[in-house]
Design a protein that fits this description.
Layout (H helix, E strand, L loop, with lengths): L1 H8 L1 H32 L1 E5 L2 E4 H19 L6 H28 L5 H9 L5 H4 L13 H13 L4 H37 L4 H12 L1 E10 L12 H11 L8 E10 L4 H20 L3 H8 L16 H7 L13 E3 L2 E15 L1 E7 L6 E7 L5 H9 L5 E6 L2 E10 L2 E13 L4 H17 L3 H10 L5 E7 L12 H7 L11 E3 L2 E11 L6 H24 L6 H8 L4 E7 L12 H10 L8 E2 L3 E10 L8 H11 L3 H12 L2 E3 L6
Antiparallel strand pairs: 1-2, 1-18, 3-15, 3-17, 4-12, 4-14, 5-6, 6-11, 7-8, 7-10, 9-10, 13-14, 16-17
Length: 666
C-alpha cells in the first residue's frame, strides 16, 4: 500500500516521464522514417518547374540515350567526351520537356493520343522518324509497316530469352523516338500559336512605311572619344558603381570558380627505356626461331598475332619495305627497330600469295527476302566472316555461327587480288614503370608541401620553368577542366576548397595535376571588380562626352563645331529612321533619331553617340518614292518576327525555376 501511495504521490511526475519517453519514441520513429524522406530529397538530380527528377529517372534516361546512340552508330566504345555529351543531352531534354509541359498546361495545350499515332504511323509521319534508317523499307523510304510490326512485336514479347532481350532493346529505341516526336510536336504547336499571335497590324505597317520613306539630307561632324586624352577627364568610383547598378542584370552568373594548375607529365624514364630494350633483346632469338610464334607474341607483345593478311596499304609503314621485298619468304626477320617510343621486330609467317582486299556480300534469309549488305574491306569484317569471304569466289556461300544461331552469306562480287603477307609483330611500347610513376607522383606531392598556397605555387612553378595554366568559369556541373582527361574531380575539389588553397595531386590521363583555387564567385551577379575594366572604359567615354559637349557649348554653326573639334565636315545624302548606320560613322541610332526629330534645315545640340560626340545639320527633306501597300508591309514585318516564337521557347527555359543538383552525382 505504501508503494501504491508513493506512486500516487508522484503520479504527475511519472506521467510526465512516461509522456516524454513516448514522445522520444514517436519522434525517434518519425526521424528514422523521415530519414528516408530526406534521403529521397537528396537523391533528386534536379527540380524543373516543380517537377522533381530522381536519380533513378535520370540514370534510366542516360541508359536509354546510350542504347540509342549504340544502335544509331553501331558502336559501343564511347569515350569520356561521348558520355559527357549524353549526360548533358539528357539534362537538356528534361529541361526542354518539363518547361514546355508547364507552359502547355498553363494554356491548355497538349498532344493527344490520336495526334501522336498519326505522327508515328499515319499519313503524315513526323520528320524525326523519317530520318531513322532503322525504320526504312527495301525502297529506302520510311515504312509504316515496319514500325507497326515493331510496335506489335514489342507489345507481344517473346518467351525466348534472346529474342526478348532484343525486343527490350528495340522497345528502348522506339520509346526514345516516340517521346522525341511528342516533344518536338508540342514545340511546333506552341510556336505555331505564337506565329499567329505575333503579326504586324495596320498601324505597324504604316509606321514602318513612313520610317522608310521620310528622310532628310544631312551633314555632320564628329569628335571620337579616343581623340581626347584620358588625363583630361576624371572618373570616380561613384561613376563606376552607378554604371554597375544600371547594367547589373547583364552580369548575372552561375556560381563558378577559377583555378590555375600545373602539370607533371607521366613519361617513361631512362631506366624504362633500358628495361624495354633489354626485354626485346632477351626475346629476340626465341621470336626468330620458335615454332609457336603466336604464344611468344601474344604473351609479350602489344600487337597480338591473329594471322591477319597485310597488304602494302595496311602493313605498318616501318615494315613495308621488308615485308614486300623481292624474295621475301617465311621465316625472314627484322632486327629490333625503335620508333615512336616503341621497340618492335617482325617475322614473316607467309609470303608470296595474293588475296582480294574487298568483297560484296548478301545475307541469306530463310523464309524471307535476302538482304544485300554491300562492299566490305577485310578490316571491316569479323575474322570468322572475313576469312571465308575473301578466300572464296563469286557465287560461293558460307555459313558462320552468329549469336545462338547461324547465318549464311553469299559472295556477290569480289575485289581484285593483291599481294599479301602474314606478319608476326613483337612490339613493346615504353611506358612508365610503377617506380617511375611513384617518383613523378612524389615530386608533385613535394611541390605541394613546399608551396602550399596559390601565390607560392605560381611563383615556384614559374621559377622552375613550368607552365601555369589558368582556367576560368568552372561551374558545379563542368565536366572537365579544359582538355584535361578525367578531370571532373578537380571541379568537385574547387567547389569544396577555400580561395587560395592548393589541391592534392590529381591523375588526369598521362599527367599529374596540381591546382590552386584563385577565385570563388558564389553571388548571383559578377562582382564589380570582375567588370571594372569595361565599366571604367564606358565611364571614361561618358566623361569625355561631357568634356566635348562643354567645349561645344553655344556653337552656332557646323563649321564652328568642326573647327573646335579639329575634324572635317562629312555629308550623308539621306537619313531615315529605317537606317541603322550614319554614313561612314557606323552604327549610331541615337544620332539618326535626333536628326529626324529635329526636322529640316536645323542644327543639333552636341549628341553623345557610340563612337564620339556629333553635331548634325539637316538639309531639305529627301523622301523616297513609293506607294503604301498595307498587306505587303504587314507581310514583310511579320517575316521579321518569324524567329520570335523559337526565341520564346529558349526564354521559357532561361526563365524556368530550375534547381540543378547534377554536380552531386557526377
Amino acid at each position: 500500500m505504501a508503494s501504491l501511495q508513493r506512486i500516487r504521490n508522484h503520479g504527475a511526475l511519472l506521467i510526465t516521464i512516461v509522456g516524454l519517453a513516448m514522445l522520444a519514441f514517436i519522434l525517434g520513429d518519425f526521424l528514422n522514417s523521415g530519414s528516408s524522406f530526406f534521403n529521397r530529397s537528396r537523391e533528386n538530380v534536379g527540380v524543373i518547374e516543380g517537377q522533381k527528377i530522381h536519380y533513378t529517372e535520370y540514370e534510366a534516361a542516360k541508359d536509354q540515350l546510350t542504347e540509342v546512340y549504340k544502335i544509331e552508330s553501331g558502336r559501343t566504345d564511347f569515350d569520356e567526351d561521348m558520355h559527357t555529351q549524353i549526360r548533358n543531352q539528357v539534362w537538356n531534354m528534361f529541361v526542354m520537356d518539363y518547361t514546355m509541359r508547364a507552359q502547355a498546361k498553363e494554356i491548355g495545350m497538349d498532344v493527344t493520343t490520336d495526334e501522336l499515332t498519326e505522327l508515328c504511323i499515319g499519313e503524315n509521319v513526323h520528320q524525326i522518324l523519317r530520318g531513322r534508317r532503322a525504320f526504312y523499307g527495301e525502297d529506302g523510304q520510311y515504312s509504316r509497316e515496319i514500325v507497326k510490326n515493331l510496335i506489335a512485336a514489342i507489345n507481344e514479347g517473346s518467351e525466348d530469352a534472346e529474342q526478348n532481350a532484343n525486343l527490350q532493346q528495340a522497345k528502348t529505341y522506339w520509346m526514345y523516338w516516340e517521346k522525341a516526336v511528342r516533344m518536338s510536336y508540342m514545340q511546333e504547336k506552341y510556336t505555331s500559336l505564337l506565329q499567329h499571335l505575333l503579326k504586324a497590324n495596320s498601324l505597324d505597317a504604316e509606321y514602318a512605311f513612313d520610317a522608310r520613306q521620310k528622310g532628310v539630307s544631312a551633314e555632320y561632324v564628329m569628335q571620337p572619344y579616343y581623340s581626347v586624352a584620358d588625363s583630361l577627364v576624371k572618373v570616380s568610383d561613384r561613376d563606376i558603381k552607378k554604371l554597375y547598378a544600371q547594367h547589373k542584370e547583364q552580369y548575372k552568373q552561375t556560381p563558378n570558380r577559377a583555378i590555375k594548375y600545373i602539370a607533371f607529365d607521366i613519361v617513361p624514364s631512362e631506366d624504362d627505356f633500358k628495361a624495354a630494350e633489354t626485354l626485346m633483346n632477351n626475346l629476340k632469338e626465341e621470336f626468330q626461331t620458335t615454332e609457336d610464334v603466336s604464344l611468344v607474341v601474344n604473351t609479350n607483345s602489344d600487337v597480338m598475332y591473329d594471322g591477319r593478311d597485310y597488304s602494302e596499304e595496311t602493313v605498318p609503314a616501318q615494315f613495308k619495305e621488308f615485308a614486300f621485298a623481292k624474295g621475301a619468304k617465311a621465316g625472314d626477320c627484322t632486327d629490333i627497330l625503335f620508333e615512336n617510343n616503341t621497340y618492335a621486330m617482325a617475322r614473316i609467317m607467309q609470303a608470296g600469295y595474293s588475296m582480294p582486299d574487298s568483297v560484296e556480300l548478301k545475307a541469306i534469309v530463310e523464309g524471307g527476302e535476302d538482304q544485300e549488305l554491300g562492299w566490305f574491306k577485310a578490316a571491316d569484317l569479323p575474322k570468322n566472316i572475313a576469312e571465308p569471304a575473301l578466300a572464296g569466289k563469286r557465287g560461293d556461300k558460307f555459313t558462320v555461327a552468329q549469336g545462338m544461331g547461324e547465318q549464311t552469306y553469299e559472295i556477290m562480287e569480289i575485289g581484285k587480288p593483291t599481294p599479301k603477307v602474314k606478319l608476326a609483330i613483337l612490339a613493346r611500347e615504353v611506358t612508365p614503370s610503377s617506380k617511375t610513376y611513384s617518383i613523378i607522383y612524389n615530386n608533385a606531392k613535394q611541390f605541394i608541401v613546399n608551396n602550399n598556397n596559390a601565390e607560392a605555387l605560381e611563383a615556384a612553378a614559374q621559377e622552375a620553368g613550368m607552365t601555369v595554366v589558368p582556367q576560368f568559369n568552372l561551374t558545379a556541373t563542368t565536366d572537365k577542366v579544359g582538355q584535361l582527361a578525367a578531370s571532373r574531380p578537380i571541379v568537385r575539389w574547387a567547389f569544396e576548397a577555400k580561395e587560395g588553397q592548393v589541391s592534392d595531386v590529381f591523375e588526369c590521363g598521362q599527367q599529374f595535376i596540381v591546382a590552386a583555387l584563385t577565385e570563388v564567385n558564389d553571388g548571383d551577379y559578377r562582382p564589380l571588380e570582375a567588370v571594372r575594366a569595361e565599366l571604367t572604359y564606358e565611364a571614361t567615354n561618358n566623361a569625355k562626352a561631357e568634356y566635348i559637349k562643354k567645349e561645344l557649348k553655344g556653337v552656332e554653326s557646323l563649321e564652328a563645331a568642326a573647327q573646335i573639334m579639329g575634324q572635317k565636315v562629312q555629308s550623308v545624302e539621306r537619313v531615315s529612321l529605317a537606317d541603322s548606320r550614319l554614313g561612314n560613322a557606323g552604327m549610331e541610332p541615337a544620332v539618326i533619331g535626333a536628326a529626324i526629330a529635329q526636322g529640316e534645315n536645323a542644327l543639333s545640340e552636341p549628341i553623345q553617340g557610340n563612337m564620339g560626340v556629333f553635331v548634325i545639320k539637316t538639309g531639305a527633306a529627301n523622301n523616297a518614292e513609293g506607294t503604301f501597300n498595307a498587306e505587303s508591309e504587314k507581310a514583310q514585318l511579320s517575316s521579321r518576327f518569324a524567329y520570335l516564337p523559337y526565341q520564346a521557347i529558349q526564354l521559357l527555359e532561361d526563365e524556368a525555376e530550375i534547381t540543378d543538383n547534377r554536380a552531386n552525382f557526377q
